[in-house]
């Protein structure tokens, strides 16, 4: 039996520290372990004993690229326990903040992290030397996302302006109105990006995925809705634990989530498009249709395109909010602590982010559970990797390595969130 | 003559990560209206945007620990590249070093961009620099206050 080993010491362009072990025997992938060795961060443990109002700011620290997902999940869970509803202009402002995060995160991933794979460059800097206009466009789009985060969240990374019940400070209407021109430019730039990316050659690869996303009756869901799949699952957010259960696996410091019994859920932009394409804003829907993504796609490499469509949506939705926003008198509604258990679940750029807390009657956190989207997507990443590797065993080691890394980046994994880089080893037996 | 722009990257509430802001604050106090200043988190797109249209830029940041706290690295970026490991930024790795190299690829570097980085050792919570980093910062301010704005 011949033996061939490929080792990549560092997989770049993902967030966090991990490795991939591929074992190939007799032309078959015998094992594909997505091994996360970054130490656990114990956020859930040190939330216990803290005041419920501290949870948003503490959990926002879990991630530098999707802190809003943590802020919002924590806020919604606490507001659910305290029987408070944040609605109207405050809800709109939260949605705007979240759109800022989607723009910032999606644009970063598309232009800086994933697109070099498709265009054959080692990184975005090498890509920028020959595709300068494209990268300049991406940087300007990202800057607008950052600015939205700064205005609504207080700063572009780890926002500090969100509290249980609303915000600490509300922007002036004029501050939002100042974004109209940039958002209108961003919307057109995002549409052009969909057209550009649709011309790329995508590897032919599909799986019969079980997609899971939030679905809302009236809007493209970000912060509220029911947990709905393309295969019949339809449950409320408090029922999350009945469909997704976390397990330890020997090869990862991150818990992995099992979907239903023995299934693997696919979260993120492709899942959202599959389930919610009919809720897209008009220009985003047009962009999806023109890119052939109106009904979603089972090709995970087209997640790049799905992010571009969602970027169109995020700019379009931001523009709607900015143009119609009326500044309320108060930045937050009063929240009085109550004993109970509650949950919050929102659509982080890379998929569902779930929070569940139990409070005592003084509002002290007794128990906390947080599930990052990468914890759920790990199992589907492993499944994709096994099949991608098996379908490409004729490639030489470097090309196979490249394709596997590209397949991992389809999910824009945030390893830091899930446990929290990747080494790739292929043992061909 | 256009004023030099001093950019600080870092977080003054995370000990040595505050080296950039502290340096710029002290230099601004010495140089007054002869310089412009910007305080940034170090996120790459924001850094590139900050120097658009500027002629001379000084960028101050904390360097990642490499065993010599307080060591000063100075790079005339038009003449030499910035090692990606020097000023690492955690958010998917598009920080100061990547921003400078990206701007070079896009021909968006100012005529002169000087990166000054002090190697940190303590990036924990709280204000104030560690002893060796503070000493290095003090010496730098004295030297640069004379150099910046000199003809």
Summarize the structure.
The complex is a heterodimer of chains A (429) and B (151). With 429 residues, chain A is an alpha+beta fold.
Structure notes:
The complex is a heterodimer of chains A (429) and B (151). Chain A is of the alpha+beta class and 429 residues long. Chain A is built from 15 helices and 15 strands. Chain A has helices at 43-47, 55-60, 67-81, 88-119, 124-130, 132-153, 173-177, 180-198, 240-243, 269-276, 282-290, 303-324, 373-391, 397-409, 415-418, and strands at 5-11, 18-25, 28-36, 162-163, 166-167, 210-215, 226-229, 234-235, 244-249, 252-259, 265-266, 340-348, 351-359, 365-371, 422-427. In chain A, the strands form five sheets. In chain A, strands 1-15-2-3 form a four-stranded mixed β-sheet, with helices on one face. A four-stranded mixed β-sheet of chain A has the order 8-7-6-11. In chain A, helix 3 packs antiparallel against helix 4, helix 4 crosses helix 5 and helix 13 (373-391) runs antiparallel to helix 14 (397-409). Chain A is globular and about 65 Å long. With 151 residues, chain B is α/β, with parallel strands linked by helices. Chain B has a five-stranded mixed β-sheet, with helices on both faces. The radius of gyration of chain B is 14 Å and the shape is globular. The interface between A and B is medium-sized, with 25 and 18 residues.
């Amino acid at each position: 039996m011949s033996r061939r080993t490929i080792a990549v010491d560092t997989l770049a362009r993902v967030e966090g520290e991990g490795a991939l072990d591929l074992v190939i025997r007799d032309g078959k992938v015998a094992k594909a372990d997505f091994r996360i060795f970054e130490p656990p961060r114990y956020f859930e443990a040190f939330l216990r004993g803290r005041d419920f109002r501290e949870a948003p700011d503490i959990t926002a620290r879990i991630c530098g690229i999707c802190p809003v997902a943590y802020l919002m999940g924590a806020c919604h869970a606490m507001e659910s326990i305290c029987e408070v509803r944040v609605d109207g202009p405050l809800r709109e402002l939260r949605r705007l903040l979240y759109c800022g995060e989607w723009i910032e995160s999606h644009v970063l991933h598309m232009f800086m992290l994933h697109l070099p794979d498709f265009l054959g460059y080692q990184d975005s800097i090498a890509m920028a030397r020959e595709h300068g206009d494209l990268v300049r466009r991406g940087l300007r789009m990202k800057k607008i996302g950052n600015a939205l985060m700064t205005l609504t969240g207080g700063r572009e990374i780890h926002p500090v302006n969100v509290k249980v019940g609303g915000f600490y400070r509300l922007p002036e209407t004029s501050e939002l109105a100042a974004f109209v021109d940039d958002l209108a430019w961003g919307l057109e730039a995002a549409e052009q990006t969909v057209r550009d990316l649709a011309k790329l050659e995508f590897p032919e690869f599909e799986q019969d995925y079980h997609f899971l996303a939030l679905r809302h009756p009236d809007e493209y869901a970000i912060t509220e809705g029911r947990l709905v799949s393309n295969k019949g699952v339809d449950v409320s957010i408090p029922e999350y634990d009945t469909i997704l259960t976390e397990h330890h696996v020997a090869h990862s410091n991150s818990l992995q989530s099992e979907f239903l019994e023995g299934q693997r859920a696919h979260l993120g932009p492709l899942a959202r498009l599959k389930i919610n394409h009919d809720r897209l804003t008009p220009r985003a829907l047009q962009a999806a249709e023109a890119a052939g993504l109106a009904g979603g796609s089972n090709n995970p490499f087209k997640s790049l395109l799905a992010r571009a469509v969602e970027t169109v949506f995020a700019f379009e939705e931001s523009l709607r909010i900015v143009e119609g926003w009326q500044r309320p008198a108060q930045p937050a509604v009063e929240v009085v602590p109550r004993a109970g258990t509650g949950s919050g679940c929102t659509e982080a750029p890379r998929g569902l982010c779930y929070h569940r807390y139990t409070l005592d009657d003084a509002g002290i956190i007794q128990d906390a559970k947080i599930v990052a989207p990468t914890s759920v997507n790990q199992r589907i990443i492993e499944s994709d990797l096994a099949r991608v590797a098996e379908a490409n065993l004729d490639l030489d080691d470097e090309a196979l390595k490249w394709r596997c890394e590209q397949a991992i980046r389809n999910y824009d994994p945030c390893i830091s969130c899930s446990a929290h880089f990747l080494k790739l080893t292929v043992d061909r037996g | 003559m256009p004023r030099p722009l001093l950019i600080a990257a870092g977080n003054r509430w995370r000990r040595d990560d505050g080296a950039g802001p502290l340096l710029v604050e002290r230099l601004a106090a010495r140089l007054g209206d002869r310089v412009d200043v910007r305080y940034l988190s170090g996120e790459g797109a924001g850094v590139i945007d900050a120097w658009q249209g500027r002629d001379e830029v000084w960028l101050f940041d904390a360097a990642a620990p490499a065993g010599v706290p307080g060591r000063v690295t100075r790079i005339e970026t038009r003449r030499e590249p910035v090692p990606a490991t020097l000023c690492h930024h955690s958010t998917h790795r598009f920080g100061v070093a990547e921003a400078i190299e990206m701007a070079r690829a896009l021909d968006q570097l100012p005529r002169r961009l000087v990166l000054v980085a002090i190697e940190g050792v303590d990036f924990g919570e709280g204000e104030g620099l560690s002893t060796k980093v503070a000493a290095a910062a003090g010496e730098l301010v004295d030297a640069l206050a004379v150099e910046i704005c000199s003809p």
